[in-house]
Amino acid sequence: MTEKRYDAVVFGGGSAGLAAAARIASEGFSVALLEREQELGGVLNQCIHSGFGLHVFREDLTGPEYAERFIERVRGSSGLDVYLDTTAQEVTAGGGGSGQEPIVVYGYSRRYGILRLAARAAVLAMGCRERNRGNIGIPGSRPAGVFTAGLAQRLINIDGYLPGKRAVIVGSGDIGLIMARRLTWSGAQVLGVVEIQSYPSGLTRNIVQCLNDFDIPLHLSHVVSRIIGRDRVEAVEVSPVREGIAQIQEGFRLDCDTVLLSVGLVPDNELSKKFGVALNPETGGPLVDAGLQTTVPGVFACGNVLHVHDLVDYVTEESERCAAFAAEYLRGRYELRQYRLQPGANVKYAVPNRYFPERENRFYLRPLIVANQARLTVRLDGESVLERRLAHVQPSEMLSFTLSPKELAGVSPSRENTLEVSIT
Amino acid sequence: MDKSSGAPDRGRGGEPYDVAVIGAGVIGAAIARQLSSYRLRTVLLEKEVEVSFGVSKANSGIIHGGFHHSPETLKARLEIAGNTMFDRLQRELHFPFRRCGILVAAFSVEEMKAVEKLYAQGLANQAIGIELAGRDRMLALEPRLNPDVVGGLHAPAGGVIEPYRFVFSLIENAQANGLELRTGFKVTRVQRQGRWFLLGSDGGGSVRARFAVNCAGLYADEVSALFGAERFSIVPRKGEEFILDRNARGLPGKVIFPVPTRLSKGILVIPTVEGTCMVGPTAVEIEDKEDLATSQSNLEVVFAAARRLVPALSERDIITAFAGLRPTLKGGDFYIEASAKIPRLIQVAGIQSPGLTASPAVAEYVKDLLKKAGLELVEKADWNPFLSPLPRIRELAPFQVEELARKDPAYAEVVCRCESVSEAEIVAAIRAGHQTLDGIKFYTRAQMGRCQGGFCTYRILRLLARETGLPIERLSKRGPGSELLRSGL
Predict the structure, then answer these.
(1) Between A36, A106, A156, which is nearest B489 by CB?
(2) Using CA of residue A287, residue A289, residue A295, residue A296, what is the dihedral sign?
(3) How many structural domains comprise chain B?
């Protein structure tokens, strides 16, 4: 068994892990980056459309181009070992043995055999997975031809196979919208996108560029109430939804051979659970402090494993911050003086759940409402310390804000110092 | 395992066998294995491309405790006898099986009266170790149980099993002992030529056999008609089940039944042998033997019933749903007899619950019927009841996987991350004849976890293409007509 020691081990070589690993290495620490697939880049590799990097690079890049910038950084980093084709199978933190490296990882790999890696810190960057048919319980038969949108995207863009000729897309998440356009370009017919909510769940720019430009109908407040077909999908039944109930008698049939599901993403925290990290039921990701450290000391989290982001640029930004905090931890200078931040009115969640009183803090949040001319307010023990006007908010678009020490001047040891963020 | 039905016939009128077993579900598999211990030429015929793909694939996977059926019935006798045979079978064949115990929970005085009847029935059946339990005992046995329980029944000999893995292992072992399997062979013609049955398939193949066993599950009535034997009618009774994540809240340690109704044993909560949780099944009589659709309203029915047993269960933990069909026969008992009309045909029909539990005893019973009908049974001196277990990395520690990977690096390649299935295990499934996505799923558990194949499907397709030499476009979910992908862009 190959045994190695590192300062930090990073789980996942997608956008979050690439940024985090390069950043930790740049501060002079040794890093192991573990990736299950045969290439770095994660899901970016199959996102051959553009729209990446508008914030980070002020450029319009494709997914592979965006990934390449970070892969080059990783390849050029000294002290950073990349383990491709390697699955972290067993992990432990803090359990006995050498006090120096409390984190132990067993990696399974065809290339390297069984690895035992010991480290002082870890960054969880495993990303997310797609919700599937079982999660949303679409009734009907169980034929071939039902794919999650991300799997279909991979099959088309990387493997070069078309999942079918006539498709219906369930859910208006971004991957589904992108796939509506991709299928159309590939000569397949997209009969419609069916969304249970009364508003789209993907970005507005994707509704315009992927559906409207190709005259693909978007059925809001509708569900696929039945999948029909014994061996292969033959049709779906689409029904309007009122007060949460499908009106099947008003349903109509769409003859198709393929159903793509774009019904949400779930942070993939199976490894986090093996570490014993506590999870936040609202985000599906780990509970983290102001420095993105989980409830297990030395274990940090960033990117879609922490909460599902809408843009990769934000993943990069968050992951670099996370790595900087992990580096502080490795130097023994991690700041423990922190106070709580909690979601208030109309906020599904805010990440992180704590803040540093004397530093700049960056938060991401998801609204629960659709509204124009909304206002974001941050209150410190009831007093407003930050207000921002927002032209439009909706649950599918993530919001972010920064709090500087100036706004936190009112924090004092004699108070409780809880921040509450709300949208009205 | 896969032998094409389109193979040309050898000689006149197909290959000669002593026994043709029609239907490779758990009953056919158990009979075929039983017969493989004798000096006989036996062929097992299956219409699907994979074995176990009918009734035996989609059921609750319970080894029953012997108290649900009245002692006068054949099924009660075979259930008790079958139950006791599973320990030995597991030692021989290494399928997933655990005697976790079964509870029946009562929530009122009337229900408790019904439980007492079950208990008396269990005693009459000589069910092993059953006990009548009060509230405290029930909650000590199963802390996840609804605290409103007033008492119930405990059957420690009950357990859980992966039914398809049981079928696969029976058939693999029988094949190692000389059984011939023909998948994709749907019997559509039966002719009698002297002492031979000539069985023809719609694919063009045919076999000759002196004896035939009809264990065609949902289609046993149609097969009987092909022989010109007894007329009866199999009515499919649909059951929908839901699988919950292995991290689901409320996952119990024992199988929990409600008090049964006239129609079924009720909606249960099952800790599956592989660590997930299953709730169901419903019980609805239908007409279409191919109708495996699930519905929204049944989800609500199932969860309402399941939460009465275990309040912590949540729909949010569902990873998939499926429906299965029970092949029911009027009268409700198993119909296992030599045909009164057609000599040398054995009818094995109406095998619904507890058919899985009874299956090894059914096989012995059928063997005796065949003997009575004139089949000569001479034991093979070299019959090997053992199947060597296939290593599964999720059951092994890293140093053990390392040992395997030294010989075959594919053991260190994790293909299915949710269920921890290595490439070597998938290749073993393909080489054992499972050449569809569903076949690989049921053999290895790859695609069966929380992502339901979202991450590993393309990797499995690549392995299938590599191992079989078939182009990707020919690969299917469960046989012809269910191909997954169109040709390259």
Answers:
(1) A156
(2) positive
(3) 3
